[in-house]
Design brief:
The protein is an alpha+beta fold and 596 residues long. It contains 24 helices and 16 strands. It has an eleven-stranded mixed beta sheet with strand order 1-2-3-5-6-14-10-16-9-7-8. A hairpin with a 5-residue loop joins strand 5 and strand 6.
Length: 596
């Protein structure tokens, strides 16, 4: 997506086909006027590749007059194309809003089948299956799991079984630092059949696009280390890895700085997804702890059940058009460190190997819309709109800024409705606890997510995970529960992301997923304003020259809490308490005298 004219469905209008989008000339400036539209190029020119390069700005893309490739983004965008407002606001947004009300799930429950099957019943878990109308339901109670105890997620029987079975799938030990250096030396000295180390920095957009990240500071050495890990775990056979570990040269190598062996975890998770984690195929799946509190829930095809198939398809098209005009970040971070390798096994996602007609589809992107704490504000003292929501990266997001309200009303509202439908009855306490149960949305496009935990989310809270697109695979795996769910397009899951590690299995095809969540520091900021938490002490001291009075000034600026006991019956007021700290010098004998 966008589709070509011959591959588009009848429901897709002609203005959304790639031929129509690349047909209009760009006469805005002299530089863009020389770029010919797609139809004016010869067939050989239309099949040309290598038009853009990750991390390098490109303002003239042959065959795409409005195309722009920014160094920090990972998708080709068309910010100055005036067709963007016309393509989104009237038709697509109105179509998505036409079925605004969520369907009544109670009507489905009337067909409830009272017969159920007990799959397992022991001291550790209880699993039952039954039918809810035409949908199959599986409920699982983990009797050795408690959502309030983080250690239970590691010590439960399912977690231990998953860890034991996973470790046996790849018996090779993690790479020692000296072994890493040995393979680095072999890669640098090898000729033919080995990756070109000089080109590694250009294959990683973070090495040149994000100047403030740790990866950009590491430069080619980081990319060399990633190439080493990839070579060892994904391209060597078990016999080759064993011979490399026995190489006597490695004993003479110095020990470098410690680093995470991300490709070992990637290879291990992919094998475990195929051989270890059980596949739950039921349409509705809910996991609760010993106190019947929800740990994980998944409903397949929920979007179509609530809004209909046409609205679900329309929402996927709406998201794809949004990606066509709006630049999104490249997800080269801790949980996406193998994105360079993903582009190798999925060349259709590598923009440097795409033609001009397939360039809009070659993207691995991420964006965050909502609020979070300012950098370094772990306590949530100051909450602000993040940069993706404010569109602060220059003029390339002008139309996106104007249409952001329609985007929220059409896309984010549907995700909120799906998440609310599951969260409100399954965990009403968490739903009512924050002022707003969702304050941040993570939008990801074709991203493979490695095993991770979302540590910034509300402690012990639930996040909504919705997927759209036209893909196969992409099963959502929950490592501590020793299982995986289909997570096909239109599915919605609730997951306690702060404690449950959740990688995603490999997939093929366009995959868009939105995560609705709330950060812990944002919740604490709201609670302080509501009086549920005491206010934070001030960060800056006043200009009082007497250091003895600074302790009193801090107390004076902190919110008071009246406990309503007899100790406060005889309150003595002073000039300092009535008129603030600057009324009298702290050294004055009358500064603490009683006033009449």
């Amino acid at each position: 997506m966008p589709f070509s004219r011959k591959n588009a469905l009848l429901s897709v209008p002609g203005c959304e086909t790639i031929e129509c989008l690349l047909r209009a000339p760009n006469n805005k400036s002299r530089a863009t006027r020389v770029v010919k539209p797609f139809d004016e190029h010869m067939k050989a020119q239309q099949r040309r590749k290598g038009l853009v390069k990750l991390g390098k700005r490109c303002t003239q893309i042959p065959g795409d007059p409005f195309g722009l490739w920014t160094p920090w983004a990972s998708n080709v965008v068309h910010p100055r194309d005036e067709r963007m407002p016309r393509s989104q606001t009237p038709a697509i947004v109105a179509g998505i809003d036409s079925n605004q009300q969520i369907g009544d799930m109670i009507q489905i429950a009337h067909a409830y089948d009272e017969e159920f099957t007990v799959v397992k019943d022991n001291d550790e878990e209880l699993v039952v299956k039954f039918a809810l109308g035409s949908k199959s339901v599986r409920l699982m109670q983990c009797r050795d799991l408690d959502v309030t105890d983080e250690e239970a997620y590691i010590q439960s029987s399912r977690a231990r079984a998953s860890e034991h079975s996973t470790s046996t799938q790849l018996p090779d030990p993690p790479m020692a630092p000296e072994l890493t250096q040995l393979i680095m030396a072999k890669l640098l000295s090898a000729r033919g059949g080995q990756p070109d180390i000089n080109d590694l920095s250009s294959s990683n957009p973070s090495s040149s696009g994000s100047s403030g990240s740790k990866k950009s500071k590491a430069g080619p050495f980081y990319n060399l280390r990633m190439a080493t890990l990839e070579e060892y775990w994904l391209h060597m056979s078990p016999k080759q890895r064993e011979d490399t570990r026995r190489d006597p040269v490695r004993a003479n190598l110095p020990v470098p700085k410690w680093h995470t062996d991300v490709f070992h975890q990637y290879a291990l998770d992919q094998i475990a997804a195929q051989n270890v984690w059980g596949y739950v195929e039921e349409d509705v799946f809910v996991v609760v702890d010993k106190n019947h509190r929800v740990v994980f829930a998944n409903v397949e095809n929920l979007s179509s059940l609530l809004f209909g198939y046409s609205t679900t398809d329309l929402l996927a098209r709406f998201l794809d058009i949004w990606f066509y005009f709006t630049p999104l970040h490249s997800p080269e971070s801790v949980r996406h460190t193998v994105s360079v390798y993903i582009r190798k096994i999925h060349p259709e996602l590598d923009p440097s190997k795409a033609t001009v007609a397939h360039l809009p589809d070659a993207k691995i992107c991420v964006a965050h819309y909502g609020t979070w704490a300012v950098t370094g504000g772990q306590n949530g003292r100051h909450i602000c709109l993040n940069s993706d929501s404010a569109f602060t990266r220059g003029s390339s997001s002008t139309f996106s800024r104007l249409l952001f309200g329609d985007f929220c009303r059409a896309a984010l509202d549907k995700v909120t409705g799906m998440t609310r439908l599951l969260l409100k009855p399954l965990d009403p306490e968490h739903y009512k606890d924050p002022e707003d149960f969702l304050s941040l949305f993570a939008l990801r496009v074709n991203g493979y997510t490695q095993r991770h935990r979302d540590k910034n989310e509300v402690s012990g809270g639930l996040a909504g995970f919705c997927t759209f697109g036209d893909y196969t695979g992409g099963h959502l795996c929950i490592t501590q529960l020793n299982l995986k769910v289909p997570h096909e397009p239109g599915a919605c899951s609730l997951i306690r992301g702060t404690v449950l590690r959740h990688p995603v299995e490999n997939f093929t095809g366009p995959r868009f997923f939105l995560i609705g969540t709330n950060h812990e520091n944002v919740k604490r900021n709201a609670w302080r304003k509501l009086g549920k938490l005491p206010a934070l002490p001030p960060t800056n001291q006043d200009n009082d020259t007497n250091w003895k009075s600074r302790k009193h000034d801090v107390k004076m600026d902190t919110t008071c809490v009246n406990e309503r006991d007899g100790h406060f019956d005889n309150i003595q007021y002073t000039n300092r308490k009535l008129h603030d700290a600057g009324s009298l010098e702290a050294s004055s004998p009358s500064s603490e005298a009683d006033t009449s």
